[in-house]
Every structure is written in C-alpha cells, then in structure tokens.
Amino acid sequence: MLDKPYSNPSKTTLIGYFWSGKHKKVVKGINLLTLYYTDAQGVSVPVNYRLNDKREGKTKHDYFREMLFEVMDWGLMPGVITADSWYAVLCFTLSKFPLSQASSLLVFRLL
Predict the structure, then answer these.
(1) What SS3 class is residue 60?
(2) 88: CB partners within 8 A, 6+ apart
(3) Exposed / middle / buried, residue 102 (Cβ in 10 Å: 0-12, 13-18, 19+)
(4) 69: Cβ contacts below 8 Å, ≥ 6 apart
(5) If pLDDT is split at 50, 70 and 90, which confidence band does 106 have?
(6) Which contacts qualify for 67-70: CB closer than 8 Å, 24 or more apart?
(7) Lower CB density within 10 Å: C or N end of the chain?
(8) Sign of torsion over alpha carbons 59, 61, 67, 73
(9) CA separation (Å) from 18 to 33, 62, 76?
(10) Which comes out higher in pLDDT, residue 81 or 50?
C-alpha cells in the first residue's frame, strides 16, 4: 500500500481506498502487491509485482495466483511458498503444473 492522502481518486485510475496494515485502517493510495523470492541464505529479491486496478475486477488472491504461476512458468520453483495473513483463507492448487514439478512444494501461510 503506497499512501497517497492528497491525490484525487476520480482523476487517477490506480488511486483508491485500500486496507493498510501499517495504519490498521482503510486509507487512500495505490495498492502494490509484490512477490519476493528468498534464498537459503535469507537474501530476498522482488520477482514480480502487480498494481491493483479495481477496473480489472480482480482480488488480491487473483493477483497472488497470477504472480505465482507466472514466476513458476519462468522456471522458478520455490521449495516453500508463504504469504501474510491476508491470504490465510486462500485455497488454491498448483494443478497447473505437473505433479513432478510441484511435488517438492509446500504451501502454507504465516502470520
């Protein structure tokens, strides 16, 4: 969530009202979702992102699924996938990928 308290949502398409974990309330801004890859040494790098565009009618879960499958199509096959508590109710499968590719994946949520 990128705060934009002084922007006019009617004049900018990506500005809207979104829940902010930082402020613990709905605030005006741009909803940026970032997918990070962390290696065994703890080095994290962003590998994909989405700007929430309400005109697309997608949820944060839809964007998460898109980003995850996209990086897996690129060949990045993580051993563990985690997400914050906003995705705790997310139920998805990795059925897009053959079992041989996804067999080492453990899907769970933290926080």
Answers:
(1) helix
(2) 109
(3) middle
(4) 96
(5) very low
(6) 67/33, 67/35, 68/35, 69/96
(7) C
(8) negative
(9) 12, 16, 30
(10) 50
Q: Which two tokens stand for residue 84?
A: 């914050």
The pLDDT tens digits of the residues spanning 14-73 come to 888 887 878 888 889 888 888 888 877 878 888 899 998 888 999 888 888 888 889 889
* CA-closest candidate to residue 80, choices 102, 65, 97, 98: 102
80 falls in which pLDDT band (50, 70, 90)?
confident
pTM: 0.68
pLDDT at 85: 64
The encoded tokens of residue 58 equal 């997608």
User: Tokens 């902010």 label which residue?
Assistant: 20
**SS3 label, residue 55:** helix
Tokens describing residue 10: 């009617």
